[in-house]
Specification:
Distance between the termini of chain A: 54 Å
Helix content of chain A: 25-40%
CATH architecture of the largest domain in chain B: 3-Layer(aba) Sandwich
CATH superfamily of chain A: HUPs
CATH superfamily of the largest domain in chain B: HUPs
Radius of gyration of chain A: 21 Å
CATH class of chain A: Alpha Beta
Number of domains of chain A: 1
Strand order of the largest sheet of chain B: 5-9-4-1-2-3-10
Structural class of chain A: alpha/beta
CATH topology of chain A: Rossmann fold
Number of domains of chain B: 2
Largest interface: A-B, 80 and 92 residues
Largest sheet of chain B: 7 strands, parallel
Number of strands of chain A: 15
Strand content of chain A: 25-35%
Shape of chain B: elongated
Distance between the termini of chain B: 48 Å
CATH architecture of chain A: 3-Layer(aba) Sandwich
Shape of chain A: globular
Structural class of chain B: alpha/beta
Oligomer: heterodimer
Strand order of the largest sheet of chain A: 11-10-9-12-8-1-6-7-13
CATH topology of the largest domain in chain B: Rossmann fold
Largest sheet of chain A: 9 strands, mixed
Number of strands of chain B: 16
Strand content of chain B: 25-35%
Helix content of chain B: 25-40%
Number of helices of chain B: 9
């Protein structure tokens, strides 16, 4: 089985969000970038578990400039066999999906795995777009993946519960919590990652469908209104009369 | 070129999020000097479908096909693409929920459409460019997007744009779309839904608790508060990780994102990852014995006190209020 895991670079979850150039660019000064957690913890680790059980290869693919090398090496240290970097600054999700879909058309893979969303743009887009571009089956928000020959069984989150679905390869999934447990790379993995192959591929032409014009920070809360622990009925009154939500 | 709005009911009844999407589509249609049509794949009665017309749709198309009883994002996107072609539509609106997140990106690829996932306001047209806001960085910032492409898809975040009732009448029509066996690639084998409980992602009120509760045996008072308020229960990540509560309840960066009208946090310190999952809530109430807990900075109302003393008293006060209301 040939697994392709899409990884994105994302600012560490504790990053203070700020913007530059008249609020048109994300300020990445001193920001620590990590592998997007959903891509790493769930998609990559589940692909590795299945490879260890059933054989095959796990390739990670990233659309990004040379500065994404660190997160690619992290994915290799966790256990991916090799990596592909499409050498382009990502414009939007469709741009990323088109680059990956073009690569998949030229190189046979059985299962493409993405995280359910990136923690910076929170769109939940790339997986479905790749599936749409390739006309492959798509299972979104998958919380488990088992393989039996060429048939996969997955659980996916739905409103108020979950459902079990079946799909045959090739297909695309987006991985949510439950799919796997995060792995910490060991020293051997980190050493091995240094010599694993990273193919740098030129991007294919793509028009821009969307762009970000500017950013703003949400209005700060006006400050918490504290109620004494001895007078809890005041809180009930505030929620009813002032906030008008009960 | 009409605006299409995809709807999906909850067991045959439309909810606020559906009305939000229809009203949103209708307001965009007005800006574009066109009409909003609803596309629904369920075999629902005329009366139920017409209830969407109250929010500005002029037509509801019922696409009833046995194959669409099986949720397959790829198949749904294929059918919607065919519908859009048939009706000559260039704009499609979804709710940003489980189904919308699954179908919209596939459709965007098929329609060559620019897609904004999780819009939070009514778009502004500037020539043929649509400008629209969405939350980014897990709610820590807002970005103004431009969609440049001719075809446009928007998934609307629930609880951000209030639905508006209109006077217009709407008609229901059937629309036939050809589906072949190879169009469906994903087969649903089993659907498991917790019955009776209020769904966390749709709940208007969420009562959430964390490690301050000291053990799973103490959740009785949390569930009691949820019962009194008609709320869903949630929990912080550590609580789910040590199996005090099921993972489905975990709210936060890596768990579920919720946007209720009221989020009550009991004994949760408010780590940044937890806040990322709840900061879209309209009103946040925090009860914690540590006055330095970071959650107070994100809260609207707070009580500094021991949850084991405050929560039972608060439950009595809520009960009294509900009995009087």
């Amino acid at each position: 089985m040939k697994f392709l895991v899409c990884i994105s670079k994302a600012p560490d979850t504790t990053t203070k969000i700020a913007f530059t150039d008249n609020n048109t660019k994300f300020n990445n000064d001193k920001v620590v970038f990590i592998v997007n957690p959903y891509d790493e913890w769930y998609a990559l680790v589940r692909a590795l578990e299945l490879k260890e059980k059933l054989g095959g290869t796990v390739t990670v693919i990233n659309v990004g400039a040379a500065d994404t090398d660190a997160i690619i090496r992290k994915a290799l240290a966790i256990g991916a066999d090799d990596a592909v970097r499409i050498d382009a600054e990502p414009v939007d999700a469709m741009f990323v999906a088109k680059q990956i879909a073009e690569y998949v058309k030229e190189n046979a893979y059985d299962i493409v795995l993405c995280g359910k969303e990136t923690i910076d743009y929170n769109g939940s887009e790339v997986g479905g777009m790749i599936a749409g571009l390739l006309d492959w089956g798509f299972v979104s928000l998958a919380s488990s993946l088992e393989l039996n020959g060429n048939t996969a069984t997955l659980n996916r989150e739905i409103a108020g519960g979950h459902e079990t679905v079946e799909v045959t390869i090739p297909f695309v999934l987006s991985a949510a919590k439950g799919m796997a447990e995060a792995r910490i790379p060991n020293m051997r993995g980190i050493m091995a990652a240094r010599t694993k192959p990273v193919a740098v591929v030129a991007p294919s032409a793509s028009e821009n469908y969307t762009s970000i014009l500017s950013y703003e920070l949400p209005n700060d809360k006006t400050g918490v209104k504290l109620v004494s622990a001895d007078n809890v009925s005041e809180l009930v009154a505030l929620l009813h009369n002032e906030a008008k939500i009960i | 070129m009409p605006v299409l709005v995809f709807t999906e009911s909850a067991n045959g009844t439309f909810k606020k999020s559906n009305f939000e999407a229809v009203s949103y589509g209708a307001r965009i249609a007005t800006q574009l000097n066109t009409e909003a049509y609803v596309i629904d794949f369920e075999n629902l009665s005329d009366d139920v479908l017409k209830s969407l017309g109250d929010y500005g749709a002029t037509k509801v198309y019922r696409v009833a096909n046995e194959a669409l009883k099986n949720f397959d994002a790829g198949l749904f996107a294929k059918v919607l693409n065919d519908v859009a072609k048939k009706l000559n539509a260039a704009t499609v609106i979804f709710s940003f929920n489980y189904s919308g997140k699954a179908i919209a990106p596939v459709l965007a690829a098929k329609m060559n459409a620019g897609y904004v996932a999780g819009a939070i306001d009514i778009p502004v047209m500037e020539g043929r460019t649509m400008k629209i806001r969405k939350n980014v960085f897990s709610g820590k910032a807002i970005a103004l997007y431009a969609i440049h492409s001719e075809n446009k898809i928007i998934a609307l975040t629930s609880n951000t744009v209030a639905p508006e009732k209109t006077e217009n009448k709407c008609s229901v029509e059937n629309l036939e779309i050809t589906i072949t066996a190879t169009d469906s690639k994903v087969k649903v084998k089993e659907v498991v839904k917790a019955s009776g409980k209020i769904t966390l992602s749709d709940a208007d009120i969420v009562v959430s608790a964390g490690r301050g509760l000291k053990g799973p045996e103490n959740w009785g008072m949390v569930e009691e508060m949820a019962n009194i308020l008609g709320a869903a229960t949630a929990c912080s990540r550590p609580v789910a990780d040590i199996h005090w509560r099921p993972h489905e309840e975990h709210v936060g960066q890596t768990g579920l994102t919720v946007r209720p009208n009221l989020y009550i946090a009991l004994g949760i310190s408010g780590a940044i990852q937890h806040l990322a999952g709840v900061n879209g809530s309209k009103v946040i109430v925090v009860i914690n014995k540590d006055p330095e807990a970071p959650f107070f900075k994100a809260a609207d109302y707070g009580i500094v006190g021991d949850v084991f003393e405050v929560v039972p008293k608060l439950n009595e006060a809520f009960k009294k209020f509900k009995a009087g209301a």
